[in-house]
Every structure is written in C-alpha cells, then in structure tokens.
C-alpha cells in the first residue's frame, strides 16, 4: 500500500509519529519535526527573538522548605507543624524577602541566596500556590466533588503529565510543544523550535512540533557517520548512503528522510556551537542542571545560525521525592537550582538577551507541610519561580496560603489546594511569547474556564 492510499488520519499520524524515530539505541537522539511548516519561511532578526525555558523538578518539590515563613508568628506556626524538618529562623535572615503580605514575611531557603539577589534586582518573581486544576476550585467544592478535578491527584507520572500536557499519563502533546506549533512558520529552521536538553518530555511534544533532543554536550552524532566506521571512511560513506538514500517503499523512504534530516541538523548544530567563543559566565560543570542550562545558553547564542526567532527549551533535575532524608538531601538540590539558574540568567545578560528569555520552574506537585518524621509526602499546590529581564520581579503573584494543617488553604496535611492554575501560568508565558488571545485555546484547551488569563508577570 502506498502512503497516499492510507486513510487520511492514519497517514497524518504516521508522518507525525515517524519523526520521532532514530536508527537505534543511544545513538538516536532525534525527535525531528517531520511536519515542519516553511523551513525557509523566515530569517531570524537579531532583535526579534524570544525563548521560554522550563526547569522541571522531578519528584515533587517541597514548597515548605523552599519558601519559608519568616516573621516570628508564622515561623513559629511552621516550626510547630514541620518539627525536625523546619529550617531555623536565624538561618533565614540573609534570604528574607522584602515584600510583606498581610503582616507576613517570607524567606527563600538559605541555599537560594543567588536567587534572592535576582529578586532584589527585580528579575525574579515567586508564583504562590500554583498547581494543576481543571477550573477554579474552592475547598468546599473539592470536598463535595462538585467540580471536575485533575485526574489521579498525587500520582507522580500522572501529575507530571497533567502539569506538562493538561492530561494524565499517555498524553501525546504538551503545552510547550503546542506553543511551538504556533511558531514553526516563523523559524527559518523549524527543527530547532522545541529543544530538550534532558531526554524526553511530553511538555515538548506538539501536534506538529516534535522535540529536538540534544545532550548537555551538544547534538548527538549518528555513530558511524560522523567518524570512521571500523576505522574506514569508506564504510562511513557507505552507511550514510544506506540510511539517507531515496527508497521506493514509502515507509523506508520516510525513515531515511528523517535520518537525513537528523544528520543535517546535527551538522548544523555542531558547526554553530563549534564556531562560538566560550561564554565568560561561569557555570558549575559538576552539576547536571548547570550543564544543561549552559547548553541552552550556547544554543541561544547560536540562534541566528540555527534560524530561530521563537524557541521553547526544557531542562530538568530529579531527586525531589523526599519521603525521607529531606533535611539531608533537599538543601543540595536547592543549591543546584540556585547556582544553575543564577548562572543562566547571567549568561543571558552576557549575550544581550536577558529581556528576551524567560525561565520558570515546575514540578509534579508540592508536598505536605506536615512531617512524616524524616520527610514530607505527596501534595498538590506549590510555589515556583519566574525569572528573566522582562519579568516584573521582586514580588509575589497569587495568594499566600495560611501556615496550617487542615486550614482554609489545604485539603489535609498541608496539601495546598492551588489558587492559581498551571493553565493561567502557561497563558501568561504564551502571551509574552506573542500568542494572541484567540489562539490560547490551541495551546491550553481549558483556559476558557478562567476569567483571569494573564497573571501579569510582564509589563
């Protein structure tokens, strides 16, 4: 059967999914956009560029020890609930935040001193109590189950997927990828619209855009093509011809076309990165997250060579499922975030694109405020950061929850009921990227459920 004899939807799905195929094993990093629209439709102008960078914290970050109550009364309530998990108040003095909300003051964790500096400089904002929702939900509605709720709450895989895609595990597209769909035509090389530096994530898969995967060292080469195979350049040439030649069978032809595109993309990325001067901004090269963000910075520096005007990036760090050893392990994770994000912001300043790059954190869910003895358990809402030169920083967005268990803001054990939805955060970021209000439902199918679609991070 020929490709044009397949049912229309089946043919379209094959073409979309086949773009994620590589040759084999670890040498196959390519999830290339087979349905790219207008490869040469636009030329990247130096001043017309924006990038969105998602820093995903896998495992469910503990909000209680990330943004900590600091005024005496609130800290006493927090310490009474957290007990041995509580950060001592005197350790928070250097990272106390200036904004006072209803007489209450908060502090960043002691390990987040560099992010405190960005807050003071107006380049970092804190989004309070954000999480997965279907629509605005009150505590009474939650208890009565009178409104639709996110499916499979408190499940790692499902809530990671709902955060990234608005649907549970099994989703085929995420809002980062759907955002990328809208910008494919505007990039001279659409392959580099959505770039993942940490493997694979549904967040980066679109209806048409498919994430291009790189490592923290750059594009992963096709083994046996970019260097002699069995010590022979003739063998390398033969392999290249074998896997990129035109084929009469439509499935073979499609696979070889994808492989050829991946080979060409690797060559373009390799050339663009290889011709760069080293960044002056220091990064901690012993940190996986720092190395990922360093690669993002280098790819942004190569934006003109890559033909990019709008890009979405994804990086990640794991280890946040702190049911135990929270006090022993969480500070080190926060140190990694602090150093990596601060270096990345400094690199965007060095590159002259600080106002054109916005970075935000995300995670499966928050955790319980109450202690289980040595850690905290799966929660719901959490606090997150939004960073960039265009961000109206040095302030909170959203509602500051009470410091209590089974209080007005939680569903039990200090599991915060989100007062801001992921959809609202995403809509705000998408609007900054240039998505008109009429197109927001293409990225966020549930956004119509919210009267406030723009939280106001940007002027």
Can you tag this structure with a few keywords?
459 residues; alpha/beta; 9-stranded mixed beta sheet; 3-stranded antiparallel beta sheet; 12 helices; 12 strands; globular
Topology (elements, then pairings):
Elements: H1 8-18, E1 50-57, E2 67-69, H2 72-82, E3 96-101, E4 104-108, H3 113-120, E5 124-131, H4 139-144, H5 156-165, H6 175-181, E6 194-196, E7 212-213, H7 233-244, H8 250-274, H9 288-301, E8 310-317, H10 326-351, E9 357-363, E10 382-388, E11 396-397, E12 420-421, H11 422-433, H12 440-443
Parallel strand pairs: 1-8, 1-9, 5-11, 5-12, 6-7, 6-8
Antiparallel strand pairs: 2-4, 3-4, 5-10, 9-10
What's the structural domain tally? Answer: 1
Q: Calculate Rg over CA atoms.
A: 23 Å
Which residues form runs of ≥5 with pLDDT under 50?
1-45
Largest sheet: 9 strands, mixed
Structural class assignment:
alpha/beta
Helix content: 25-40%
User: How many β strands by DSSP?
Assistant: 12
**Spatial separation of the terminal alpha carbons:** 55 Å
Shape label? globular
Q: Encode the helix/strand succession as letters.
A: HEEHEEHEHHHEEHHHEHEEEEHH
User: Beta-strand level of the residues, as a percent range?
Assistant: 5-15%
> Kindly state the mean pLDDT as a whole number?
89
List the total number of helices.
Answer: 12
